[in-house]
Amino acid sequence: MRMTDSVVNYILSLLESEHGCAEFRRNELAETMGCVPSQISYVISSRFTPEQGYLVESRRGGGGYIRITRIQRDAPTLLMHLVNSIGESLDGASAGVILRNLAERKVLSLRDAHLMAAAISDRALASVPQEQRDTLRAGILKNLLMAAYSAT
Question: How many degrees, rounded to 5, is the angle at CA 93 between CA 42 and CA 131?
C-alpha cells in the first residue's frame, strides 16, 4: 500500500472512531506514519476537500492542530453541492474521487458509481480530442448526478 493511501486510511479511521471529526497535529501524525509532514499536508489538501465532503481547519503554532470534519448532508443536498462545485472542467482522477466518496457515503450504489465512472472514463471519451475531454467529462458527470438527484 502506498504511503498516501496509508495516511488516508488512518485519517478515515480517526474520523470513524471520533464520529466524523478528527483532530491531530501534523508533525505527530507524520511521525506515527513514518513520513514527512509535507506528505500529510498533501493528503489533506488532495483527499479531504469540501468537494469530497470534508471541512478542514488548522491552527499554526506550538499548540497548533488540524481538525477534519466530515460534512453531514443528506443525499440530495450533497448531490446538488457537487453539481455546483464541479465547474467547467474535471479531470478523470478528480471524477473518480468524487464517485468513490459518493459510494462510500452510500449516496450512490457501488454499481451506479462504477457505471458513471465507465461513462466518463478516458476510454469512453477516446473519440474526443484530449484537450476537450475534461470539459465533456464535467458536463456528463453533472448530468448523471442530476439524474441521481432526481431519483432521490
Answer: 120
